[in-house]
Amino acid sequence: MKLLILLSVFAASAIALQKRYDGYQLFQVTPRDRASYDALVQLYEQSEDYDFWIAPRAIDIAMDIMVPPARVATFVDLMHAFRMEYRVKMIDVQTVLDMAREERAQIPRVATPRYSVDWNTYYDFNAISAFVNEIAAAHPNLVTVSSIGRTHEGRDMPLVKISSGGAGKKAIVVDGGIHAREWISPAFVTWLINELVENYAAHPQYVDNVDWYIMPVINPDGYQYTFAPLGDRLWRKNRRPNNNGIGGSSCMGTDMNRNFGFHWNEGGSSSNGCSDTFHGGAAFSEVESQHVRDAILAVAGPAEMYLTFHAYGQYWLTPWGYTSALPSDYTQLYNLAVSAVNELTAVYGTQYTIGTSTNVLYVASGGSDDWAKGGAGIPFSYTVEMRDEGLYGFELPARQIIPNNLEVWEAIKVMAESLF
Ligand SMILES: [Zn+2]
Fold first, then answer.
1. How confident is the model over 165-220, as pLDDT tens digits?
2. Would you call the peptide bond into 388 cis, given omega within 30 degrees of 0 as the criterion?
């Protein structure tokens, strides 16, 4: 008993050693003119002090910016200088993280779980790795798991192929977890694997008509770091050190979603190795993005669709990210997104904005969706920013996982049916 108490005290203090966000505030800011917008873009690109939970998109579109306590006064001055519209969404980010963790701790565990994960709470990379192997063992006729390679820290990166066999089928490539802190992403992608396989009998057409190549976590080191006792719940990048800080100083991690090699480093990413949007020393400089590239190229022939899952903001985005110009088949991409989002919204009324490049001023180059379309030649490429709109942001309560997944599944069905 004494040992148990000791262990639980240790567990609590270990969590307390994660990076803390006491006094950090989350601001929602809406630029109403070009000068305000440009000032915010400058902050986004040049300062490593401000963490943009939602990046700048355009004038009149709100962005969420986390400001450290030492910068709050300066930031508010800036808001006033530009007469910007702003409000404080989180007065103390640490409180929000603590409350979410306490809430997860109260969630009852299933006594005899079928798999190492369920969708009542969030699970770390080890549990997700165990899950994909368990479901493959339970359904060898439908599921094959392989490793696309190892991460910088030596973790195997799983690829789940779901297929009922037969040659010449079209394929859909899905990934999640490229941004470590976006926990709903692996929580959806693992659910998708489960739905396609465990509920195959209820809707065999989604597996019989198309092959799926699913990578539930493509930034395992970063994702595991958001769970680690000495880690950081709000970590975004991978975990390979670089020397690209100011003056060649040492910094940690590359934004994998700015590291893909199609119009790499053409705006909307940072050359500062300490920035949250650091694009890496070169296109595909990171071993994880290299493995993802190679895994996608290996199936690029049959692949007609690429879906990459992020949070948050509720956007269904089409390429291009690197330019405001539209792809030549934009009408088809847009129309399919409209049909899919209509079905999504029909479930609970959740609104998604379809990212038309025309109303997006801001560019973000080096994204996996741009490369999937422009580099790998996969025509239907989408980035999906799931729940919410910033009430909880990255700390989407675990009780919203299943509702989120059910509504996004309706959109996925429409997406898949378009290839039948
Ligand atoms: Zn993201």
1. 999 999 999 999 999 999 999 999 999 999 999 999 999 999 999 999 999 999 99
2. yes
User: How far, in Å, is the centroid of ligand 1 from the Cα of 233?
Assistant: 14
- Rounded to the nearest angstrom, the distance between the alpha carbon of 278 and the centre of ligand 1 is 13
Distance CA 2, CA 388 (A): 42
Spatial neighbors of 148 by CB under 8 A, at least 6 apart, are 157, 158, 159, 215, 291, 292, 294, 295
Closest CA to 155 of 92, 101, 212, 222: 222
Quote the CATH superfamily of domain 116-226+282-417.
Zn peptidases (3.40.630.10)
Angle at 129 between CA 385 and CA 220, to 5 degrees: 55
Domain boundaries, the chain: 19-102, 116-226+282-417
Distance 282 CA to ligand 1 centre (A): 20
Q: 38 CB contacts (<8 Å, ≥6 apart)? A: none
Q: Report residue 10 as tokens.
A: 């240790």
State pLDDT tens for residues 343-395. 999 999 999 999 765 455 578 899 999 999 999 999 999 999 999 999 999 99
Which runs of consecutive H residues, i.e. helices, occur in 70-203?
A: 72-81, 93-106, 125-138, 184-198
List the alpha helices (DSSP H) in 349-400: 368-374
Q: Indicate the DSSP class of residue 134.
A: H
**232 close to 225: Cβ distance less than 8 angstroms:** yes
Find how far residue 175's CA is from the centre of its chain. Answer: 9
pLDDT in tens, 83-118: 999 999 999 999 999 999 999 999 988 888 899 999
Q: How far apart (Å, rounded) are the C-alpha atoms in residues 418 and 223?
A: 32
Q: How far apart are CA 292 and CA 213, in angstroms?
A: 11
Q: Which residues contact 70 (CB under 8 A, 6 or more apart)?
A: none
**Whether the bond into 312 is cis, omega within 30 of 0:** yes
Distance from Cα 207 to the centre of ligand 1, integer Å: 27
Catalytically active residues are 385
C-beta separation of 337 from 414 below 8 A? no
Strand boundaries in 122-270, DSSP class E: 143-150, 156-162, 170-176, 210-215, 241-242, 251-252
Overall fold of domain 19-102? Alpha-Beta Plaits (3.30.70)
